[in-house]
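debug: dumping io for the single-chain case to check the tokenizer round-trip. Nothing else runs in this session.
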Amino acid sequence: MEMRKTNRFSQLISVVAAASLGAAAANAAPAFDEAALKLAPGVQRASVGYEAVPEPFVVSNGSALYLEPVNGAKSNGEVRPGEKLEGLAMTKGQGWLLVGKDGVGQGYVSRGLICPERYCKPTR
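debug: decoded output
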């Protein structure tokens, strides 16, 4: 009798685990496609690669929009406090957001100068 209970319990655990994995896979974000990123002339690809933007961002401190994800790189304009950003990608492990316009990367802004929209509301 004890063996039968253990076997049923094992089967139940297997069914629950399979259902959980299936639900997690269904809710998982699609893979990020770095190759699909389009960049404006002069904007350099990040050598470390990219990952998906976790949420919408707003500029908290004005900054230059850099052509490379490096402080002091050449500028391609600026972002202003309160501006909602079109985030296309984050650099892997470096803390830079690739900012876009109409789906084309225009430059990078440091993660330290932007704020998640859920905390900072856009004013522009």
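debug: round-trip ok. The two ends are 70 Å apart (CA to CA).
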